[in-house]
């Protein structure tokens, strides 16, 4: 999932440089959502690992 976040972030940056505002906004929005999902899953896995010890 982190891979998709990075890919969409790169697409958003390239689209922003080329002036495609709508595409850049959509890609950045999707990348932001995927980033937060990844962050939540990472925190959950850390908590799970700490509680197993």
UniProtKB/TrEMBL annotation:
The chain crosses the membrane at residues 7-27, 33-51. The keyword Lipid biosynthesis does not apply. Signal peptide: none annotated. Keywords: Cell membrane, Membrane, Transmembrane, Transmembrane helix. GO terms for cellular component: plasma membrane. HAMAP family: UPF0391 (MF_01361). NCBIfam families: PRK13682.1-1, PRK13682.1-3, PRK13682.1-4. This is DUF1328 domain-containing protein. It comes from Galbibacter marinus.
């Amino acid at each position: 999932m982190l891979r998709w976040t990075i890919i969409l972030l790169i697409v958003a940056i390239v689209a922003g440089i080329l002036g495609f505002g709508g595409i850049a906004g959509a890609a950045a929005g999707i990348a932001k959502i995927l980033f937060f999902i990844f962050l939540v899953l990472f925190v959950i896995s850390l908590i799970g690992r700490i509680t197993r010890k």
